[in-house]
Specification:
By secondary structure, this protein is α/β, with parallel strands linked by helices. It has three domains: 5-134, Rossmann fold, CATH 3.40.50.10770; 150-154 and 247-370, Trna Endonuclease, Chain: A, domain 1, CATH 3.40.1350.10; 157-243, Gyrase A, domain 2 (2-Layer Sandwich), CATH 3.30.1360. Helices cover 40% and strands 29% of the residues. The chain is built from 13 helices and 17 strands. It has helices at residues 15-24, 41-53, 67-77, 91-104, 138-144, 160-171, 173-185, 203-215, 236-243, 246-258, 307-321, 340-346, 358-370, and strands spanning 5-9, 28-34, 58-64, 82-85, 107-112, 117-122, 125-129, 148-151, 187-191, 194-198, 219-225, 228-233, 262-272, 281-290, 293-300, 326-331, 349-353. It has a seven-stranded mixed sheet with strand order 3-2-1-4-5-6-7, with helices on both faces. A six-stranded mixed sheet has the order 8-13-14-15-16-17, with helices on both faces. A four-stranded antiparallel sheet has the order 9-10-12-11. Strand 2, helix 2 and strand 3 form a beta-alpha-beta unit. The protein is elongated.
């Protein structure tokens, strides 16, 4: 679908503006923001994004100071084939756009992000128009907000070692959880890629489990010595994968990726809020796009997550995806903190505890992706 002029009224979160702009393929885009809401920076962010997506489109930026000024800007740029996008902006700007539709016989367009529907309104009435799947990627969502991906670890998980280690963990999950907890709390020393832990009645279990990692050549050796057990890892990355919880990110990534609605998923994503300021980096464990919905996932291989963990996920997710983002915190145990479940519910964060049952975990994640849980 094409038009000559598309007028966008921007606010703090403008993924719907980006979708409509690419969907409409206009010859000219007029991006407008309210100066009083301190949203002027979004003009720069949107121009930068649209210049990459719509190379032949003219982009004009305008700032209004009051409703009458907005009305004047809209009237100045309306031509014979103009559509005003009311997906963003506030109620008053939508009223002004509606008045312009009546006065100048133009059309309005609105995108329902969550339900992936687009509606067109004019004097003759309203109709739903066929939506072409744009398939924005994770990097696009971050770019819309003025940010930039610095690194992501997605392609690490193509390596055979990681998949083999994950299979051992999942196939020996109860033993793995018991062993992992003991190791974390009983490390005597750590030198390079080797760790020494205190001996206990778990010695046989620990050695049995890590012999499995030896068989796939991810652990060089594991042996008892005096009152300790020594584990020699292949390298530091392998040690971190096994003991620091990166395996949970990998597992969650695999499950999300299998969902048919998901067309892009990244893990271990480090990004900048502002690509012009390289000193401040942020990180999310898993970010995915399902249809027109962004999912942000934090993974905690522990019971030690609290309100701080929820706040961090909430801030990062809403900064990238606004109010339509789906937020998930994946953990291996219920939280030790008080009222975490209630606080997560108030913040719209879905808590999913993985207890070793892969089928149950998959169903919970798929329900969040495909259902109405937000």
């Amino acid at each position: 679908m094409r038009c000559n002029t598309l007028i966008n009224i921007l606010d703090d979160f403008n993924d719907d503006v980006a979708y409509i702009s690419k969907f409409m393929k206009p010859n000219k885009v007029i991006n407008i923001v309210d100066k009083s809401k301190n949203s002027v920076d979004v003009l720069t962010d949107m121009e930068r994004f649209l210049n990459k997506q719509l190379k032949d489109t003219i982009i004009i930026e305008k700032v209004y100071t009051n409703p009458m000024h907005l009305n004047k800007i809209i009237s100045d740029y309306i031509d014979n084939d103009t559509i005003i996008n009311i997906s963003s902006g506030d109620n008053l700007s939508s009223v002004i756009a509606h008045q312009a539709m009546i006065e100048y016989n133009c059309s309005l367009i609105y995108m329902d992000i969550l339900n992936e529907k687009v509606y067109k309104l004019n004097k003759q009435g309203m109709k739903m128009i066929k939506y072409e799947n744009i398939n924005f990627r994770v990097k696009d969502y971050i770019s819309i907000t003025g940010g930039k991906i610095v690194t992501d670890e997605t392609f690490d998980y193509v390596i055979k070692d990681y998949n083999n280690m994950l299979n051992i963990i999942l196939n020996n999950y109860d033993l793995w959880i018991e062993t992992r907890d003991y190791i974390r709390n009983n490390i005597v020393s750590q030198v390079n890629d080797n760790i020494v832990i205190r001996s206990s009645e778990l010695n046989k279990d620990i050695i049995k489990l890590f012999k499995s990692f030896c068989n796939i050549k991810c652990v060089k050796n594991v042996y008892e010595n005096d009152n300790n057990i020594t584990i020699m890892f292949k390298n530091e990355d392998i040690r971190k994968y096994i003991l620091s919880g990166i395996w949970l990110e990998h597992f969650t990534y695999n499950i999300v990726k299998q969902n048919s609605k998901v067309h892009d998923v990244r893990t271990g994503v480090r990004f900048l809020w502002d690509e012009d300021r390289i000193e401040v980096e942020n990180e999310l464990d898993v970010i995915a796009v399902a249809g027109t919905t962004l999912l942000c996932i934090s993974c905690k291989d522990t019971k030690r997550y609290n309100s701080g963990s929820l706040n961090e996920l909430d801030i990062y997710a809403e900064q990238i995806g606004g109010s339509t983002v789906k937020k998930i915190l994946v953990a291996t145990k219920p939280s030790k903190g008080q009222y975490v479940d209630e606080r997560a519910e108030r913040m719209g964060i879905n808590l999913v505890v993985f207890d070793g049952d892969v089928d149950k975990f998959t169903k919970e994640i798929n329900y969040i992706i495909e259902g109405t849980v937000v």
